[in-house]
Design brief:
- By secondary structure, the chain is α/β, with parallel strands linked by helices.
- 33% of the residues lie in helices and 20% in strands.
- It has 13 helices and 13 strands.
- The chain has helices at residues 14-22, 37-43, 61-68, 78-95, 151-170, 200-211, 245-248, 263-276, 296-307, 326-332, 342-346, 360-369, 409-421; strands spanning 25-32, 52-56, 105-114, 126-134, 137-145, 191-197, 222-225, 252-255, 280-285, 315-321, 337-341, 373-377, 394-397.
- Strand 8 (252-255), helix 8 (263-276) and strand 9 form a beta-alpha-beta unit.
Length: 422
């Protein structure tokens, strides 16, 4: 058995802990499956309140579902670690409200592990995923453990990985992983890393979500990104204070998650552009009503699926926003037509998106005031629940003009995950 991990020898150095506490970093930790020892390491020497805002261990499936606000596709995966980090980051923002925000480096860290278990089945994988979410950065590291170690040994490794992610962010030296993690033939263990960064205007879209709970229109923002291979162009707007003339001239908007963009999206965009004679701007809201915001690794993947169409004449660009509701989108894109599918059309007045109460008359009045139109594309197997009042604002594209083949981004993602596993 490859294991000689004495607790005193393989603890995080106390001087490194204090260097973390001396940094401006404020964190919320969310850890499950292993590595929770890092919470004690950060707190047991004193001054822990200088760094730790909150720490949670959602260990059961029910606790994890509650923490994320949804059931994850897998409980131990890179994607779930990123989701945990994003929820932790939003929690950190909430807890740091009222402070001098510029003085704090607010961070969320999520870790999900599958470590050695008693009487585990043969061939069960041992994995560690650690993610970090900051204002303008998402990162995740992955380690697949292959050597025969004790549970205690694997816990130490997970703890060190979590600490090193935090240490790197704070600009202090990382600690050496115990037990020679590496790529020796008998282990083939390797740490893989992904990091994506964005500019300040994009990062601000996540910050504003917290501050806009009671006044949803005061802190709406847009960051515009060109897809034609040129340098990214970004602009920010607050409510009616529209500072960028290009944003004011947008007339055709295609909201969606585009995770990924697929051929039906392209068909819809092309046809809409031909009908109205203006280019399409794809809109992705980083914030959502019923699930965590989009992290920057996921965002870049979605933008990559759109970039291949950047030079097409029907494409005007991409707008990133923090406006999940069409009420808010109407405020950001007045005098515009929104491209939507049948399923989105059916959800326009779903009460769960409006805090459980929906005032249809007020919504329609807002659309009318903002001169909003909808171009609605039908979808196979989706029955459209047509409210006669909304037809005033809609043009429904006949199935003869557009044939939906039933493909969805969810199905594409599922097949991609299956291919990774194989």
């Amino acid at each position: 058995m490859v294991d000689n991990l004495a607790a005193d020898k393989y603890s995080v150095p106390v001087e490194s802990i204090f260097r973390i506490h001396e940094s401006p970093c404020k964190i919320v930790l969310a850890i499950t499956g292993g590595g929770a020892e890092i919470i004690g390491e950060l707190l047991r020497h004193g001054s822990g309140s200088a760094t730790v805002l909150d720490a949670v261990v959602p260990y059961s499936m029910e606790a994890m579902d509650n923490f994320l606000g949804r059931k994850p596709e897998m409980y131990c995966s890179e994607k779930t670690a990123r989701l945990m980090a994003m929820v932790a980051y939003q929690r950190a923002l909430d807890l740091s409200k009222g402070e001098e925000s510029a003085a704090y480096d607010v961070v969320g860290i999520g870790a999900t592990c599958k470590l050695k278990a008693t009487n585990e089945r043969e061939g069960r994988k041992h994995e560690v995923y650690v993610a970090i979410q900051a204002a303008c950065k998402t990162g995740v590291i992955t380690l697949k453990l292959n050597a025969d170690r004790t549970r205690e040994g694997e816990e130490k490794i997970a703890t060190f990985l979590i600490f090193n992610v935090l240490a790197r962010h704070c600009g202090i030296p990382e600690v050496d992983l115990p037990d020679r993690i590496g790529t020796e033939e008998e282990r083939k263990e390797e740490i893989t890393e992904k990091y994506e960064s964005v500019s300040g205007p994009v990062g601000d879209l996540l910050k504003q979500k917290i501050y806009s709970q009671e006044s949803p229109y005061e802190t709406l923002g847009i960051a515009r990104i060109d897809l034609n291979g040129a340098q990214k162009k970004e602009a920010k707007t607050n409510g009616e204070n529209r500072e960028n003339e290009e944003l004011q001239n947008i007339r055709l908007v295609f909201p969606g998650s585009f995770g990924p963009c697929h051929r039906n999206h392209v068909f819809m965009a092309k046809l809409a552009s031909e009908k109205l004679g203006v280019p399409v701007h794809f809109e992705i809201s980083l914030t959502n009503v019923d699930k965590p915001p989009i992290d920057f690794i996921s965002l870049n993947q979605r933008l990559d699926s759109l970039r291949k169409y950047g030079n097409e004449t029907f494409v005007g660009g991409v707008c990133l926003t923090n406006a999940p509701l069409f009420l808010q989108k109407a405020d950001l894109f007045p005098n515009s037509t929104f491209i939507i599918g049948a399923d989105t059309f059916n959800r326009l007045f779903d009460a769960k998106y409006y805090g459980g109460k929906v005032d249809i008359s007020a919504i329609l009045r807002h659309f009318r005031e903002k001169n909003i139109r909808f171009l609605v594309f039908q979808r196979k197997s989706v029955h459209m629940s047509v409210n006669p009042e909304i037809l005033e604002f809609c043009e429904i594209v006949p199935m003869g003009e557009y044939e939906d083949d039933g493909i969805s981004s969810t199905e594409i993602r599922r097949k991609q995950e299956e291919n990774k596993e194989n």
